[in-house]
Automatic annotation (TrEMBL):
Binds to the N-terminal domain of the chaperone ClpA. SUPFAM superfamilies: ClpS-like. This is ATP-dependent Clp protease adapter protein ClpS. It comes from uncultured Desulfovibrio sp. NCBIfam families: PRK00033.1-5. Belongs to the ClpS family. Involved in the modulation of the specificity of the ClpAP-mediated ATP-dependent protein degradation. HAMAP family: ClpS. One of its GO terms (biological process) is protein catabolic process. Residues 22-101 form the Adaptor protein ClpS core domain.
Amino acid sequence: MSFIPDNQTSGDSRVIVEKKLKEPDRYRVLLHNDDYTSMEFVVSVLCGIFHKTAEEATAIMLAVHQRGVGQCGIYTLEIAEAKVRRVHNTARAAGYPLKCTMEKIH
């Protein structure tokens, strides 16, 4: 809520203007299966970058392995982009082709 200063209104009263705040868009971050990245590396990425417990990371890694894709988390645009970039940089530095993507939640 904001107020319009007195000098912009006609008279002594203040006009209250309400602005509706919109929740930021949310993005799902996904890991994709490949034939080269080790399961141990995927678990370490999930623990290190996404702050998952070992049990959560193992469950997500198994989903990636069995279904071809697994959800790492849901974030705002900037955080999702940063997480995807960190996964790619970390995987490339370790010599893995791990693919990480994001998709907008509708």
